[in-house]
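Sample A.
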Amino acid sequence: MNYDFDTCIERRYTHSLKWDVAENELPMWVADMDFATAPEICQAVQERAAHGIYGYTYIPEAWYEAVGDWWERYHSFPIRRDWLIFCTGVIPAISSMVRKLTTPNENVLVQTPVYNIFFNSIINNGCRVLENPLRYRGGQYEMDFEDLEEKLKDPQTTLMILCNPHNPVGKIWDRETLARVGELCQKYYVRVLSDEIHCDLTAPGRDYIPFASVSEACRRNSVTCIAPTKTFNLAGLQTAAVVAADENLRHKVNRGLNTDEVAEPNVFAAEAAIAAFMKGRPWLLALREYVQGNKERAKEFLEKELPSLYLVPSEATYLLWIDCGRLTEDAERFCRFLRERTGLYVSAGSQYGGNGRQFLRMNAACPRARLEDGLKRLKQGAEEYAKQEGTKE
């Protein structure tokens, strides 16, 4: 079946968070695709909507089967039914786990630059963000294990939030790296909360490795958050899952999610997830090819038209992590300039911590024509910014 990723669907006036912008602005910031989801998912939601009664609902057995089958078939990780707990979203789950698995004033370790909402989940629950900055060498990122071990040693560090694959840098962590993380966290009694929401948005022919699949230490000492929402553009349906293999840890997770009232589905949540995992694979494969084409086009454009910016190579996500260091030391100021002068709305890297101050994050999950528009605006803004800064000197 051929899928249409080229049509620019009008999203203004639909209460879209992403598209609540001025008429002349092009939003390429939040991780929300400008593609309609798989037709099979649309059909499942429409059929449920046609029933006309939207009362309280529960998670059907088909949901457990669909999630388990997907991870075993495509990620070589069998997930037992009793390991799975429904949740309304990955971030609600993370916030709940920070509350349940730590006490106020303890350290929660994150590897920066990283998804900025992690910081909210930590700080809002009375804990302290402890950064283990990723090393940036030769235009690519890797973990700094010497620094990681030093910070895990601190008895005040009780939880690590792992981003796998990593947002925003697009890194798929290899098995050896994940195993070392698991060993160190077990050694220092630090639990791991692995956010794997971007796991299916990998480059064609590439797969990620679930943290809990790497070793017994990883499996028993971790909680994993998964969802079809990023993969199939379903964030507004509030459907996710938490995986916990260890019985005692799973009890805490279950109590936390239920205490926070984030473990009950709306009437469309399970239906959409089942359709995604049972029927959405062909659409996903086509999507991955299209997004990869967008990434390659962005790389080609920057190298030819805008060599002062550098696109960090990525293996996952549909996000472009662009190094602006040769243009400016303050990418946040540059992003404000871009929006004011060209209408291009992208994310300033400073909000992700680490060395993010010299980066911007740009969403490439859009029709090719919209990407071209964004790249042209980026070039225009960068040239005007360089001219302005040069004049000041």
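Sample B, a different protein:
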Amino acid sequence: MSKERNASEIYKKYTKARRSVNPEGSLTSTGYLRTVNVISVLRVLYKEGSCSRSELSKFTGISLPTITRILTELLKKSYVVPVGHEQSSGGRRPELFRLNSNQLMIIGIYLRSSEVILSVANVDGKIIEKRSFIPFSLIPEKFINELVKELWLLIKGSGIEEEQLVGIGVAVAGVVDNKLGTIIHSNNLSWNNVAIGKLLEERTGGTVIVENDANSAALAELWFGCAKEVSSLVYLKTDTGVGAGLICERRLISGPFGMAGEIGNLPVLDGVVDDYLHLPSVFRHFEELTGERVLDEKQFSQLIKEEHPVAQRLYAEAVEALTRVIVFAEAFLGTEMVVIGGYWGTAHPQFVQDVVDKCRPYLHKNQWKRTPLIVGSELGKESDLRGAVGLVIHQWFEYPV
């Protein structure tokens, strides 16, 4: 069955269900949550875990009467809950409050031509509900119509109220202007200059944040993965394409044109990085050298395990190419951690160790500085979707109000 026919049949399968759902809704009822003082209170509770009224006043600089009014409203809506009292050496013990993470929700969307994945997650990053669909059409207008319908089906199926949703994060392979929410170029979707952020905001009334998948995955590691204890990291994506997500002092670096981290065409060995790390390129190279086709990741992993000479050669070239990328990245950025995502970072623990061993003599030359920790991703194939959620969390709880 062709991909187009398969997509068409799946589209028809859900048409009846879609018609029973209001295709247009509004997420603007969370306006109260977006006021500066309320965001300040929520951020302090998110970071501190629990606080008293006086602590909230101290940390935010907001007067105690205003804090009390804000807490009253947040308690009424169950966005905040009481958690007991502080110990006291005398007098009345101050009451403590914490954020109710299961009352504030985020929509994360990962866009690909082969499949779109949507999720509802709480502000701790835990995915509550997930659904996916194969796009019937990649024409932007038709694609977004379908996406919006699926989004409302997701919200209805999750059982949450629309007013609980604080934002929508969208991760996509390609070059993104995150300030405008525009996909400048995506090979995967064959899109150029699509203002998906604006279009989704018009259709949903919600706040939409758009970022490329490598940057999104870097934020996923920062908030939910192996980089929670660091402030600067490089995430190296090695699956749908090769790219880098750069975070310095907990700030995402995307550059003035959204091109920071586009390392696929960086010259290495006898080609570019994409030639040695992007799996379709690696499989094609294997076929050129052997006349045999590699069907999938599992088969290629088995060939490496069986010490097939060409597979071993391509494996060694991938180690060398990634080593050079890491050494360059460390020289320019001085990062604390390098996270290898995608196939090379998750399918082969030995690959990560081989890269570490290969990097060691170069990185140890800077003896006055601690060398970065090089690890494989903890989030695996969910890094992009979790990163879409992380986009909203990062804006809400990290950036200045």
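Observation for Sample B: Residues 309-333 form the longest helix (25 residues).
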